[in-house]
Automatic annotation (TrEMBL), chains A, B:
This is Iron-containing alcohol dehydrogenase. It comes from Nitratidesulfovibrio oxamicus. Residues 10-176 form the Alcohol dehydrogenase iron-type/glycerol dehydrogenase GldA domain. Keywords: Oxidoreductase. Residues 188-380 form the Fe-containing alcohol dehydrogenase-like C-terminal domain. It comes from the Bacteria.
């Protein structure tokens, strides 16, 4: 086995774990924190709740809410300026992938200076970030666990993948009760994002015994719990989706991803699509593309999706991919690329950009931009 | 689900991962490190290898080797004094549980002052320790992963369990090639220690979805790989034992242990027995004691030990316990307490001490010292 690295934040998980926020912040040296969240969360009441917890424990806070659903470079720089002007000492992010990635970007600039685009790619961050505590409100992005930060470069119209050990927060406080207030669309999009993290990291060139079983477990939990979570808002199913998202985060943060995410980043940089809604469209085609080099691993995924059967690895793998497409369709989300984009004119640009995304490096099968274009055409 | 915490160090795993030592140390601010190891490891050549790596990378080191196989309080204080006198800045431990626990004790005193007995129990360490990098040379103690530190109080003739989040090292560098130089007895004792960690943490009152699957995975890997590792020194089997020990460490560090370890600590404080050799004697009896409250969990363990079968949970659980006793006997280690101790005269003291060990708190079934004495008598 080659050398493998495995790093995750300290995790506090469970109903009511939000109560641990103030002691954690104080342990990390907080006296005045920058709280990063977004407008959508204000209406749910969680932002106020966090502010109350901080104030009630003698901690000052500065609030920054300028995070769009695909966070942008200028938002990161604005947040970093506020952090420095206000002399904050710890960053707390409350929300889904967008506020968390914005917080990571802010931490990067605060600790390292320069422009956020300076850190695009893997292992470009050389100096430490301020302490970070994340409070995820969706079960999907895995940003609360991962070494990944995805920021849109507005001028270039692309999503930059920034990957560094330094981007793992100090503590992730995961309170599944916040999921109860989520819309059906957000629960589905988040769970599918987590599922795609699990699949792509399991197929990744950097997959290891430390990540494999986290990935497989995430897939099992999502297949078993997504329907009850959506249909009945079953609290136990929502909790299991949180565990699945965390497991998928442990896997992809350390094993990396693949061309499904390269394409999703490229597409999301040009069109403001909810990230989790790109995977139902692309994932089955990406799996099919990787089949020639990953038969056994796709068969292991197939066994989770369709159940154990006696058949050749290839036929189980194919059956799994088919069934997954039907499963996504049954969730009522778009399953053709044509439903997400206005026309095919951007496809070549999407493919040419995606081939340079950092996630392409760990895809099990080599790709050219023409291969990526063919996948998009197949998914149209 | 109640609130659960999960914390592990950054892990670098694989053949040749020792090469990451110098960059890791530098990243943690090292210029002059305290290297903690023991005499036994000097003859294996690994101590010199680590010294060469440090010197070759411009790092100064001070060497401390006064760690006995059940490390003692005065050794910890002596090491802390050397750290401070020599103005060291990072602690590196190379070895099994003993040098690693000594290093944790040294770090505790350096960062917090006082006597090591001041920190006995859970969550008594209030100030941070110096940065620590651990290089485990046995696949068993899990000290490189865990929040536990076991130090013998010489005056009281007992092993203190010190448990704190602060005792998790910053980085654990696990290079399975160091296991190739181990004796058969040490491989067996270490693997059984890891197996006992997995079993007791899986039964623990603090077990969670984050620890359960690590525990089960550790048991599976040890059952499958211990024999080939011992009989043929099969490198792949040894690597799998390393992975198992790491998984068991992730589990018990976060879920805690039970009365098997309470008794092992108590017994090890009075008699200088190799820790891993206590479990084959006690574990089946401890499992049997816990059976009335943990039938389903002991059945899950039974399915790993004897393979899946159609039978009641209780009968699978019992079959697993029986088979485990035979498995230990087949390894050629002592399986009766009478083989480890001179006579029964110490049993009552052992039981009375063990009932106050921190590990007793997480045992699934309540115990009195009389219950513990009965377990010892049964195991005699």
């Amino acid at each position: 086995m080659r050398i493998t690295k495995f790093a995750i934040p300290e995790i506090i998980f469970g109903h009511g774990s939000l109560d641990h926020l103030a002691p954690c912040a104080r342990r990390l040296g907080a006296s005045r924190v920058l709280l990063v969240s977004d407008k959508g969360l204000e209406s749910s009441g969680w932002v106020e709740r966090v502010m109350d917890i901080l104030s009630g424990n003698g901690l000052e806070w500065v609030y920054f809410a300028d995070c769009s659903s695909n966070p942008r470079d200028h938002q990161v720089h604005q947040g970093a300026q506020i952090y420095l002007e206000e002399r904050a000492d710890v960053v707390i992010a409350l929300g889904g992938g967008s506020p968390m990635d914005t917080a990571k970007g802010i931490g990067t600039i605060v600790g390292n200076g320069g422009r956020i685009s300076d850190y695009e790619g893997a292992n470009k961050i050389m100096r430490p970030l301020p302490p970070m505590i994340f409070l995820p409100t969706t079960a999907g992005s895995g940003s609360d666990i991962s070494q990944f930060c995805i920021i849109t470069d507005v001028a270039r119209r692309l999503k930059m993948s920034i990957i560094s050990r330094s981007l793992v927060p100090n503590v992730s406080i995961i309170d599944p009760q916040v999921l109860l207030t989520k819309s059906e669309e957000l629960i589905v999009a988040s769970a599918i994002d987590a599922f795609a993290h699990a699949v792509e990291s399991y197929l990744s060139l950097l997959a290891s015994p430390f990540t494999d079983h986290q990935a497989l477990r995430a897939m099992e939990l999502i297949m078993a719990n997504l329907m009850p979570a959506v249909e009945r808002r079953d609290p136990q199913a929502l909790e299991q989706l949180s565990i699945a998202s965390t497991a998928a985060g442990m896997s992809f943060s350390n094993a990396g991803l693949g061309i499904g995410h390269s394409l999703a980043h490229s597409l999301g940089g040009m069109f403001d699509v909810l990230h989790g809604l790109v995977h139902p469209v692309l994932l089955p085609h990406v799996m099919r593309y990787n089949l020639p080099v990953s038969v056994d691993r796709l068969a292991a995924i197939g066994r989770i999706v369709v159940g154990p059967r006696m058949a050749s690895a290839e036929s189980i793998a194919r059956a799994g991919i088919e069934r997954l497409g039907e499963f996504f369709a049954g969730l009522g989300v778009p399953v053709r690329l044509g439903q997400l984009l206005p026309d095919r004119s951007a496809l070549e640009t999407i493919a040419r950009t995606a081939v340079h995304d950092a996630c392409t490096l760990t895809n099990p099968r080599a790709v050219t931009w023409q291969d990526l274009l063919a996948i998009c055409e197949e998914a149209w």
